[in-house]
Amino acid sequence: MLASDKTIGVVISTYNNPKWLEKTLWGYMYQSRLADEIIIADDGSDDTTRELIQRFSQHLPIRHVWHEDLGFRKSTILNKAIVEATADYLIFTDQDCVPRADFVAIHARYAKTGYMLSGGYFKLPMNISNDICEEDIANGNAFTFSWLKKRGLSYNFKALKYLGPQWFCRLMNNITTTKASWNGCNSSGWRDDMIKINGYNEDMHYGGQDREFGERLHNMGIRSKQIRYSALTLHLDHPRPYKTAESIKNNLEIRRNTRSKGIVRTPHGITKIDE
User: Fold this and answer.
1) What is the number of other CB atoms lying within 10 angstroms of the CB of residue 242?
2) Which H or E run contains 97?
3) Angle at 156 between CA 151 and CA 162, to 5 degrees
4) pLDDT of residue 275
5) What are the CA-CA distances from residue 51 to residues 16, 22, 48, 255 (Å)?
6) How far is CA 83 from CA 40, 67, 91, 222, 269, in A?
7) Residue 138, φ and ψ in degrees, nearest 5
8) What integer best gives the mean pLDDT of the chain?
9) Is 117 exposed, middle or buried (0-12, 13-18, 19+ CB in 10 A)?
10) pLDDT digits 0-9 by tens, 69-117
11) Closest Cα to residue 191, out of 217, 157, 168?
12) pLDDT per residue over 167-203, tens digit each?
């Protein structure tokens, strides 16, 4: 459990999708345990996103970290967010992941020195993603199967795993065969550990840069804990035009090198070793 003298922050990556970011920020307004800081890691969005963030800053402890749009540079803006952060413990998520009311509290509950946490998400189709409004998030209805079913969601075992009773979700955390890896939409760890590994590898674009970040934490001796069925976010649907075969291939090679050589500190992260 996060000690009472420790602070917790949320880092939310975004790029030109204020409609989804608004829904996500509604989720952080209704947390049972509010974040001590929220940092929006903005990969070059236009003024519409800036104006939205300014509006929410009246209700949430938000800081907007932005850089110019020069293509997909998520790793770079996340490193800037890590530097900007002051909280002891950081949750990383995305603009399209709406948190349930206990999201921050669950990360805080399971936070432990020497560990990182691996959360999960429940994917929604586009029609339901569009339907969700602030009231649905505030009253928690959007996180119930009955509400989702009325909007066309078919029953399946995956829905039970994520939306079932808490005792069942805890059981699924313990028996799932899914590896507890670092994923950018729902993971958390200690800021000091992130500084030690020099943050994200800025040579990496879309596809696996989060996994590589977690692999270097593992190489440093940080263990991972699975909370994918307890720390719930609803993943809003969207296209991925930035996904390319070239970036995937490049990132796979970097990850193989990280694992085979046991690399902890990337040379192209928060600080550039060759500079």
Assistant:
1) 14
2) strand 97-99
3) 85
4) 44
5) 12, 11, 5, 37
6) 13, 14, 14, 20, 11
7) -65, -40
8) 92
9) buried
10) 999 899 999 999 999 999 999 999 999 999 999 999 999 999 999 999 9
11) 217
12) 888 888 888 878 888 988 999 999 999 999 999 999 9
Contacts of 98 (CB under 8 A, 6+ apart): 23, 24, 26, 27, 132, 137, 142, 233, 234, 236
CB 76 within 8 A of CB 67: yes
Q: DSSP states of 176-221 as a string?
A: --S-----TTEEEEEHHHHHHTTSS-TT--SSSHHHHHHHHHHHTT
Strand 233-235 relative to strand 122-123: parallel, antiparallel, unpaired? parallel
Whole-number Å distance between alpha carbons of 204 and 263: 15
Written as six digits, the tokens of 266 are: 């990337």
Contact 187, 119 (CB under 8 A): yes
Residue 207 has pLDDT above 80, yes or no: no
Q: What distance, in Å, lies between the first and last C-alpha atoms of the chain?
A: 39
Contact, 184 vs 96, CB < 8 A? Answer: no
